[in-house]
Amino acid sequence: MPKYAVATVDEIPAGQRKVVEVAGRVVGIFNLEGEFFALRNTCPHQGGPLCSGRVTGFLHGQPGALVYSRQGEILRCPWHGWEFDIRTGQSWHNPARVRVRAYEVSVNEGPVEGPYKAESFEVEVRQQVVYVDIPGAPDMSEATGSG
Amino acid sequence: MAVSLTSPLQDRTGAEVVRTPIIDTDVHVYIQPDDLERHLSPFWRDQYLNFGKRTYDGMLFPRSMPMAARHDAWPPNGDIPGANLEFTQMQLLDEFDMDYAILTPLTGTGEVLNFDFGLAHAQAVNDYQIEDWCAHDSRLRASIIIPYEDGPLSAEEIHRLGNHPSMAQVFLVTRTRDPLGSRRYWPIYEAACEYDLPIAVHFGGVGGSGITGAGSPTYYIEDHAGMAQSFQSQVTSIVSQGLFEIFDNLKFVLIEGGFAWMIPLMWRLDRTWEKLHKELPRVKKPPSEYIREHMWISTQPIEEPLYPHQFNQMLDQLDMTDRLMFASDYPHWDFDNPMRAIPSTVADAARRRIMAENAAELYDLPI
Amino acid sequence: MIDCDIHNEVPHLEELYPYLPQHWVDYTEESSFEGPDANDYPEMVATTVHPDIRDDYFGDGRCNTAARVRLIQDRVLDPLEISVAVLNNAFRVPSIHSVDLAASMATAVNTWQQEQWLAADNRFRASIIVPSHNPVAAVQEIRRWQNTPGFVQVLLPVRSHVPYGVRNMDLLFEAIADSGLPAAINFGGAPGVPPTGVGWPQTYYEIHAGMAQVFQSQVMSMVYEGLFDRYPQLRIVLLEGGFTWAPSLMWRMNKEWKGLRHNVPWVKNWPADYIRTHFRWSLQPLDAPDDPDQMLEILDMMEADELLMFSTDFPHWQQKEIAPGVPDWMPEDLRRKVCFENPRAFYSLE
């Protein structure tokens, strides 16, 4: 599974994101309190640029007794407002069937050799770098179902 | 960064769809205060600056999105969504290679309480559409905005612009003070028919009473979803008051109400008419016949049935494939993507009719 | 066979006098009060009483409660072999603004139902009439009758002054939920607010046909505003509102929720799931398409198996027959559920 260097750690502070084009896909990289997550930038609903949406929390509870949790971990599509869990890519309303493609992310020392390559920026050796795993063949699994 | 759509020829299940011409029948333009002031006469500009645009108060629900807009629809220069021609061209017309777009200003003109200012406001918005938008892009057509609660004043504005080549229709919103079959609105229909212009009835507005037949609900989601019931009330009134027997070429375009509700509504109107037709002497045939003949419906917000095969069942039940017209509702948050909204299971001929041909015929636009 | 919607209207205001405190009888005689001013079932309108039975229904001098009981026995219960018939009464106490009078009128109607209807035929079941415009008074009336055998539900007119999901109405629904009885929302009412979201229509036709939209608004309010999250055991039957609109409403409510869920964050499942769990529909009016296959599609779309309950809607004019039976197009397996199993479960009948 090819790994792509997409950013230096310093580039995406906690609570921030970076949207990059990598291996023909547009992907959003999110930093949640030091953990990195990557989501495809295409909403499975109508194709909206998902990763430019609002990052918010999850509101639930009972009438008159609301609970606000997981602040900074919920991504709302900039078009129809569908809520996605940044950690998993699952939609809140239909997690089993409606999900945005999530990619494995790792952080390592900067690339030296091998299959690693950086498409969107210059990488210095020995910087802490964020890598995204992009499976070789195009995978359409995120595009199933509108719920 | 600018993001383009990665799979423009797939529907929302990933299946491939045929590319067709596209006419978008619901593209919102907004007028910013400086543009409004520029198009107002000195008297009304002074009135506007001293008293503002007074409309119904106490009737709005806090919305979920600023300007009810897509988050990515705010032009970078600080304009509000829908107020910047170049940005609308870039993000909508060019992005989707549209053939035409019908401008639908949601300026609250018909809700202005002072009808005289309502007329001045309508004139300003209409001149703004013609001069600042249509004159710069041949793909655009405009809607005649009117102070619809005053029939004669509205007719005055229709007569001013009825022959203007940019004007495609007369425009009002669904939450009127009285049902649209009422005589107070007849001068609007009379004038529109003189120029063979359809009457567009668009989602929205606050008309003086609650949005339900049982008072006001509590949340924006109810106001937003509840417009479908307002549309049904309007269709019921329009048909049962016999408008189509009085005004020969009267046509209505229902925009942004969805359309699945039209099916059970037609059944109920017909079954009830069979028993109560005595009360409606102007109605000569089953209400559904008038509806299928004289009403057009925009597709947005696109219906999302529980199972995909139900979409085609619904189209068959509706039996108005020659009346459905694609609309995106740009720049609003409930935008429908022209490439993905209509499921791939819809037959190519029907898709062409919905995406462009029906609108081309109605608005006389060559494609 | 269980009939969920037969109407037992009060023939004359005087029939209630024996059940009213004397001061209200005198007040009624001395004032111009002639009963609620609801005009949801005007007596002269064709739909109110089936044309084939108008003479018998209103008949000269025979128009009293006992005659009405006999008429229902002869024209509905016996010919259709109905074993349980749920009576719904459109005496609109919520339209009487004077709440003390409204409360006494409700008690009078309910006592009249107990003595004149439930006592007359053990196939009858009755609905508790309440001054629902004032939840405090309505709660008292529910508590008065909730354990009385024969009363199987609390009746609410679909037209109300605020939608039933709003929290101002919580006292009412808390009492209904506590009683273990379902609520029945039926066609009509006269709350003093327009019956549409666009003002007052001009004809009875529009009010009659348009009642379907008020039902839709009530379903939307009750689900979105969290009524069933506050009272999970609450069950509702929608009477005489039609059901063919259910699929389109479910789709729209699901769709809105996908994007605006955080606007009503207590709604935890698909709105259509709430609807299927908490709502039932009476069969008449069918509001049917010309093509029965399309009706079967609608049943499939709403997954109607457990949602529909048989009704004749007597004496209202819905079909050719005075008391219409099961429609021909209904599949055999659904027939048994609609006529028997669904209402038996809903009303916990033996």
UniProtKB/TrEMBL annotation, chain B:
<dbReference type="Pfam" id="PF04909">
    <property type="entry name" value="Amidohydro_2"/>
</dbReference>
<dbReference type="InterPro" id="IPR006680">
    <property type="entry name" value="Amidohydro-rel"/>
</dbReference>
<protein>
    <submittedName>
        <fullName>Amidohydrolase</fullName>
    </submittedName>
</protein>
<keyword id="KW-0456">Lyase</keyword>
<dbReference type="GO" id="GO:0005737">
    <property type="term" value="C:cytoplasm"/>
</dbReference>
<dbReference type="InterPro" id="IPR032466">
    <property type="entry name" value="Metal_Hydrolase"/>
</dbReference>
<dbReference type="GO" id="GO:0016831">
    <property type="term" value="F:carboxy-lyase activity"/>
</dbReference>
<dbReference type="GO" id="GO:0016787">
    <property type="term" value="F:hydrolase activity"/>
</dbReference>
<dbReference type="GO" id="GO:0019748">
    <property type="term" value="P:secondary metabolic process"/>
</dbReference>
<keyword id="KW-0378">Hydrolase</keyword>
<dbReference type="InterPro" id="IPR032465">
    <property type="entry name" value="ACMSD"/>
</dbReference>
<feature type="domain" description="Amidohydrolase-related">
    <location>
        <begin position="23"/>
        <end position="365"/>
    </location>
</feature>
